[in-house]
Please model this.
Amino acid sequence: MADILPWFLAAIPIATVLFLMIKLRLGGSRAGAAGWIAAVAIALFAFGADIEMLLYAQTKGALLTLYVLYIVWAALILYFICAETGAIDVIGQNIQRLTNEKELQLLIVGFVFSSFLQGVAGFGVPIAVVAPLLVGMGFSPLVAVAAPAIGHSWSVTFGNMATSFEALLAVTGIDGSVIASDAGLMLGVSCLLCGWAVLMVYGGWHSVRKCWGSLLIISAVMATTQYIFATIGLWTIAGFSAGIAGLFASIVVTRFKSNGSQPSAQITDTNGTAKMSLGWALAPYIIFIIVIALTSFVAPIKEFLSQTSLSLPFPELKTSLNWVIPAETGKNINLFNHPGAHLLYTAIITFILYGFTGFYKNGALKTILSKTVKSGVPTSLGMASMVCMAVVMDHSGMTYRLALGISSLLDQAYPVVAVAIGSLGAFMTGSTTNSNVVFGIFQRHAAEISGYSTAVILAAQTTGASLGSMLAPAKILVGCSTVGLAGQEGDVLAATLKWGIYLVLILGFGLLGILLIDGALT
Amino acid sequence: MTIFKQLSNNSFLLILSLILPFLIYISMDKGFSEISIGFFSTQVLIMLLLVVKKS
Model:
């Protein structure tokens, strides 16, 4: 009983957020605030946190929030800069011209394109960019947010320069080549599962039956590419390469599929804006890729932009229950070489380009800014409270206690637990990297105790964390804000939660089965 | 009622939510822990306001 109570208490803030968002359909800002209050009260009265810890946790949470909001606001500005010219509609219409099969359209944009974006950019960008595109193509806002949230999650570990993977290596001290192969395999299976779940979200088994061949080919190409790059030591570009390979595979698949069938030519202009060619409509995304390439691969530019950053030193913090958070600098915000900065450069260049070309009406800038503020504020409020809640839970040892409880319940089935704990971390913190940082060492110790291979369990951790990123309320808030679903995030969360749990269980039990058959259990 | 409405404006609450933690940090850093507790209490009030207000 003494062990169950702390676990039960540690689960209350998460349960509060889920109950308020999914059951009572409250918006993220109200649910997040309630979760934060619960976390602070429980940390203070049951987990031995003192006021100093809570105060510093709040500042660390604010730094983390600013890191995320930089991306969210820049993505929103870029989106409205594009939407104001009708570019989003044009892209959607042209994908409809590639194929008239809605399932394949969803697969290409919600699965492949979002995975590609995860390869080049970080937190929330795939959802923020793809969700409005899908709405422009005629998908419901719920599907438009849920599809990229699920579709890109498999590529998070090796996407964005493999920062999540590097973080796991850093905290566990294990060489990347030891884990890369297992992680590449598990993420490859997850790739197929995510594509399958995207189709299931849209039209259930009917959609899967219509599109299973394309799904198999595209996911096999992406998974194999990522595996090869990861295992030859090039894991920093494994996600990016997989995304590129997926886009080429998609074009080939649509060529085969369109043989004999006539893609729809009847495209309606939804907002009557100036006529724009596909080249102009795609210009922001091409500019974005160029910006990312320049700021990531050209060393002088990277060094020049990385000179200014915002970070704060924090002292060691300790609860009365001896849970210690070492002295550290909080989240480092690189002001000019941050994913948000990349989006902002793209937005500015795009605005100037479209402005000179005459795509804007008078007063467009005012409209863009007012729409950005209207979408961004409620989302940002929810994000601020949820991120701070996650930091309070982490600093008071609640998140660790929660993981410990799950693992003690199912120690014989630890691979399932390892995947679930990775997901829990990503759900809580909204970040696969943070999940790997928080639970990396824990998973390593647990693997040693349970007798499973450390490499397999750490691969399960990062795979679970990748899949868990689709459940992160903060990411859902980002997507909802771009498609006018702000305040109704619970519906989307309910959809992604269901599929996230399915995928985690399928992967976890599949892994357990393979390990048991293989005799890995000592 | 008007003051309550203005105070519960989302933009205002967001700016406060993002500024207060840094004021907390500065006052802790300068050794004014009582002031930092005051800022933290304001943060708690903002969260309570967010829970009760309709979006």
